[in-house]
Amino acid sequence: EDYILEVRDLKKYYPIKSSVLGGSKNYVKAVDGVSFNIKRGTTMGLVGESGCGKTTIGRTILKLHEKSGGEVIFNGQDVHKLSKKALRALRPKMQIIFQDPYSSLSPRLPVGEIIGEAVRQHKIVPKEELNSYVDKIMESCGLQSFHADRYPHEFSGGQRQRICIARTLALNPDFVVCDEPVSALDVSIQAQIINLLKDLQKEYNLTYLFISHDLSVVEHISDTIGVMYLGTMVEYGDKVDIFKEPLHPYTKALFSAIPMPDPHAKKNRIILQGSIPSPANPPSGCKFHTRCSHCMDICKKEVPQPNDVGNGHIVRCHLYNSK
Ligand code: SF4
């Protein structure tokens, strides 16, 4: 298989000082042994509630955060073992788009400059071609190139996200982490941005890790889906399989919360008990056991291991133990 990205047993722990234990160190396990692969030119959707570790995964893959364990192999190279120089050379190839386009755009620069700046820095095209290159990228992202001398505040939220996408695309990346890129936008604009990302993917053979708390958003763009709960990937597989038959009780609850287009369609909403436990003090055994209506004795004691139920559909739940 042509995997552009292989993530193996990735861990990211943050130290916290515990005053109870006389200042000895304790850890928040924000990402606690997560593994997955992404095929070139495809999209993996990463879903879960806020605080489940999905954003930390995105940033640790890009080495914007140091890892605490595991490996990130990008195009055959271990990203966290690269020298500073090699990492700098790789940077344009691995990019990120954020949720809030406004705060990531400098208010004092016209958008043509914003897009051109990084292109110049990374010497993507010769100087004399810079302007026409920026124009072309803007047009590809649905922006009019004669607006290159306007400032970010003169654009709407959706257009600002297009500017961020253009700035990223201008670096000629292979892989882009899209971190909740449409969550701040109106629903009608969300679809436009998702369609733009899909078109660009096809045209430029891009690979995405698309992070969202919203399953209905990832449905339209993902080929595979990973579901996160408290730093653990509880279910992973082909989008079609997961949408047809979600297996993990947490995934089922997420699905039951998606509004159905047909109000007469039968659906039993699963209401999760309680709130997400503190990641600093997660439940023993299966981290979901405090909220799971299927909880068994074993769930409180033993951490469920990943089980492949077929076609690479992986579930971490004692209900699906192959033993
Ligand atoms: Fe529920 Fe047990 Fe499965 Fe965890 S392992 S999701 S508690 S049934």
Automatic annotation (TrEMBL):
| The entry's keywords | ATP-binding, Nucleotide-binding, Transport
* Pfam families assigned: ABC_tran (PF00005), oligo_HPY (PF08352)
A Gene Ontology biological process noted in the UniProt record is: peptide transport
Q: Which residues form the ABC transporter domain?
A: 5-255
SMART domains linked to this entry: AAA
Instruction: State the InterPro entries in the record.
Output: AAA+_ATPase (IPR003593), ABC_transp_ATP-bind (IPR050319), ABC_transporter-like_ATP-bd (IPR003439), ABC_transporter-like_CS (IPR017871), Oligopep_ABC_C (IPR013563), P-loop_NTPase (IPR027417)
UniProt keyword annotation of Translocase present: no
Q: Which PANTHER family match?
A: ABC TRANSPORTER, ATP-BINDING PROTEIN, TRANSPORT ATP-BINDING PROTEIN
- Hey, which family's this protein in? Belongs to the ABC transporter superfamily.
Record-given protein name: Oligopeptide/dipeptide ABC transporter, ATPase subunit
* Species the sequence originates in: Lachnoclostridium phytofermentans (strain ATCC 700394 / DSM 18823 / ISDg) (Clostridium phytofermentans)
